[in-house]
């Protein structure tokens, strides 16, 4: 056979191979695919072409892998391995590259066991070659990829060993930094993120970004991976704006290099959805999470672990809005995928179990929460480092499940474990450690272990004084807790000493203007309570919470969940029949529907004079607005226009009047988790006044003492008129509603409104002082309440069945 015709094909093949490698190195994967495909066509026309075909199949498989074409990648890489074995032998360097590529494809498809076996084989080949050539640089890529495989399997100790070896190769030799070096830095960032060391993770990702920019450029796909890793660290740290900026930058790189339907884009959508969920932007988060789930299912199949990641994100968004059945469905689906793909001991399963347990806890299903969280903790202990933040989270949640179920001894043990875990990772001087021991102090107080509680509270006081200063709001919070504890021990002199110190700090804080009038009001309320004159025949509740408004610029994070949780609490703990509690959230809580359900369409039709009625509202409130020479506060319904409060809002006076006129019960408790000032800062539950409607300095927020009440009405409001009502930084509820549910059970079913209010006021003030540095003081107005001090959990003596409740 003449060799002349073959020479052009050999030259053409080499030319396409060189150009393809250059395009691949620049991250131009679509162009590289075209060039390697042309190289493959040329190679097929070369005699004795096993070597050329093997190299091109390997290169093409590498590009298919980056483009997310995993079926094609697996097919051509398998061909490459077979040809390399035939033409060059199993010890060939090219064999190592091909096996490594196929292992990566397996890993991307969540075939982690198969990937691990191949990575180990690649490392063996590399070690033999490195020993022979006295060149350890050959090990960098297989060490790095094996480390990534161990991270996916949750074997963090082995991953650390591999990465340490990989980075040492660059540190101890003169080889130039390359893609493998950047990947190693990225994997270090991922590993530290997985073990809960976010500061170290952030540092590694920042280093990776700098190196990637110098070695590969800012438009390379690996640069986007480092951006995503750093963004996830910022989400954990609450630095949401920076995180969003990095995710948007990464999205542009991925779309330019890989296309809008690549699996990496699905992951990016999922990360962005998680960011929005953390910010409470549920209307933005939910469609993104659904799009990510649909895309990743299409690209990777329904049983891939990335699908499970998307399901967890979507479930957490559902849970934060109080959609518990949907959340549980998503969490259980994710758990099943993890179990099938990763085995029963992977840390990701612990996270799914933690989410499932937290939903049960939100629903007051303490037995189910306990069982699930025990499994989560057992799983986490097997694979996570002793000081991992996920372990501390599970311990705290399990402790809460024990406490809610009345297992105080078990709760005490879990709280102690959480303290030890936090100490191991963050130290005894860290504020999070102070928060953990404060939880245990509250439990000790509930158990009557006053000396232990006092010892712990003094410890938190010492930590906060050192960290934040002796005149900080956090210190005022600690002093209030110590004052309450001393009062419960009948140690009035010590209680007074703590109170005076706390009061001195609080008078300098925002929201302190009306504290003096509050004390007078509480004195009047206490003097007006009389003995009960008649039993409660039946009990009804209308519960309203709005997180998603028609105007998304005023959305809240947890108001709908607050209402859902409070409704569940009334049924589980306060002896309300499920069909006697009507729940209105989000789009169902329009101005007209709230009026209708208060009136003849439900509550006004069903409640009788001897019944007990609760009306609970969690939404925005407004400052006072001038309406016909009268100053009026408004509640914001789902369809309220913030610029047209007078015509679209619910006037507070109207609310109390409609209850007086249409609800026949003589015993109505109105609970309002609202305030006057909102959109100024994240977490505030209120609304700014329209500028045209504001009187200069006279505008005030909701004043529970001045609302017009009917006979037998009492009002519990979440804050004084010059204060803000806050959503929590630490759990997915408002501070007021979470503390209210705890306070209403401070003495079990016999807890009266006054007893609950005293505990509620202390709890809300302490938490908001600690977390926000401001005052939030709930107020109870019982001036027109007749009869004894109400106990909301009282059992009705003549219950009837309603077919119109939830």
Topology:
Blueprint: H1 6-25, H2 29-43, H3 50-67, H4 70-87, H5 93-108, H6 112-133, H7 140-153, H8 156-171, H9 179-194, H10 198-215, H11 221-236, H12 240-257, H13 263-279, H14 282-300, H15 305-320, H16 324-342, H17 347-362, H18 366-383, H19 389-404, H20 408-426, H21 431-447, H22 450-468, H23 473-488, H24 492-506, H25 515-528, E1 539-545, H26 559-573, E2 581-585, H27 591-598, H28 603-606, E3 612-618, E4 625-627, E5 630-632, E6 634-635, H29 645-648, E7 650-651, H30 652-662, E8 667-673, E9 713-717, H31 735-743, E10 746-749, H32 753-772, E11 779-781
Parallel strand pairs: 1-2, 1-3, 3-8, 8-9
Antiparallel strand pairs: 4-5, 6-7, 9-11
Give an account of the 3D structure.
With 806 residues, this protein is mainly alpha-helical. Helix content is 62%, strand content 6%. It has 32 helices and eleven strands. A six-stranded mixed beta sheet has the order 2-1-3-8-9-11, with helices on both faces. A two-stranded antiparallel ribbon has the order 4-5. The longest helix is centred in the first third of the chain and has 22 residues, at 112-133. The N and C termini lie far apart (86 Å).
